[in-house]
Amino acid sequence: MKVDSFSLPLSSPLATARETISQRSGFVVRYDHRGETGVGEATPLPGWTESADDCQRALDDATTVAADGGHTDILLSLDAASVPAARHGFATALLDADARADGVPLYRWFDSDRHCNRVPVNATVGDGSPTETADAVERAVAAGYDCCKVKVGKRTVDEDVARVRTVRERVGDDVTLRADANGAWSREKAADAIDRLAPLDVAYVEQPLPADDLTGHAKLRGYGVGVALDESLVDRRVDSVLDADAADVLILKPMVLGGPGNAHTLAMRAREQGVEPVVTTTIDAVVARLAALHVAAAIPDVSACGLATGDRLAVDLAPDPTTVTDGAMSVPQSTGLGINPAEVETDA
């Protein structure tokens, strides 16, 4: 097991719940297994995963375990609840090597009967005036996207509804619209927003309430706009969210869930209970983006996913083998993740 650090500048600053960041830093993990070298990525994002220091300590400890133990021992040393990014890094490298050894792309390692060339993806539009928001969505539609997520919650409900209405009037009924409130609303504001967004045919509102209010989210369901949970999955098990009937959609981030295997298992469990999975990144480098893409590709009839985030990085760890055309991302059909571990470069 080999771990190298990296730091990649963003093309523009990224605002998170805790801070605004200008770079993404993490670790590339390489692991030899079954005669193949697999590559993984651990890119922690505080507020979603462990800190960078905790991630590095966990990977250092795992490297010590690897000196005398096998991959099962390493996985047991990496707790998905406390160090999900570190576990994601190793788990991805292990799965990449496994799929390479089996001679299949990673998504077919999850489901050998699957054949998937493209995964639908959404565009994301930030906060802005009604005209600015509609212009941005219109540009995305012109670029081929037929699903757009609009950030809401920083303005009043009146202003956000006006923004979405302007978008809908501009692009028509054939574009799927989603809204993402990032937990900004109270129960009263969320109920008002959903009541007024329903006639605008908004597919779902992502995280309308604070993350810990599962009861409130459950009460918002059934009023014409779906409820999607994202931040609520950071500090609690997916099972508890499903048991609370709190969501129509789960936003699954493999980096937050401890690896692509965990994310795929949870996606299929949600689907069995009538809850739709949507796979997204945490603004990761190419290795983790590919892992998330393969998770999505292994889910039959998956909805548009938040995977088209490579342009948020000014530089990357390696050339991206995927393309986005007509609102869908191509899925590599070569073995493993679809990227040569030798081409992954770090600053270590």
Task: Please give a quick description of this structure.
The protein has 348 residues and is of the alpha/beta class. Helices cover 37% and strands 21% of the residues.
Keywords, please?
348 residues; alpha/beta; Enolase-like, domain 1; TIM Barrel; 2 domains; 7-stranded parallel sheet; 13 strands; 37% helix
What does this structure look like?
Helix content is 37%, strand content 21%. The chain has 348 residues and is of the alpha/beta class. It folds into 2 domains: 2-104, Enolase-like, domain 1; 118-330, TIM Barrel (Alpha-Beta Barrel), CATH 3.20.20.120. It has a 7-stranded parallel β-sheet. Helix 11 (260-272) packs parallel to helix 12. The mean pLDDT is 95. Converts 2-succinyl-6-hydroxy-2,4-cyclohexadiene-1-carboxylate (SHCHC) to 2-succinylbenzoate (OSB). Its EC number is 4.2.1.113.
